[in-house]
Design brief:
elongated, mainly alpha
């Protein structure tokens, strides 16, 4: 069994980032149901939206004809850490 073809890790990274962006939605729904004030709700939904957007931009960077691995890794890691 030899090494994976070059496209396999990229495809896995894209799929994982898309799954992560989708998993933000149920937590955003919980934020809406648990909101105590409009400001708290806006802050929570803004944070969730920026996290999902960063993951989707990372997917776009990996989907280019010449993938930008470094930029995608920094963007998605920063979004996950924040």
């Amino acid at each position: 069994m030899g090494p994976f073809p070059a496209y396999v890790p990229i495809r896995h990274q894209r799929r994982t980032a898309l799954l992560g962006a989708l998993l933000v939605l149920p937590f955003a729904a919980l934020d809406v149901m648990d909101a105590r004030s409009g400001a708290a709700l806006a802050l929570a939904l803004g944070a969730r939206a920026s996290w999902a957007l960063a993951l989707l931009v990372g997917v776009a960077l990996l989907s280019r004809p010449s993938p930008r691995f470094g930029a995608a890794a920094v963007l998605m890691a920063g979004a996950n850490a924040a």
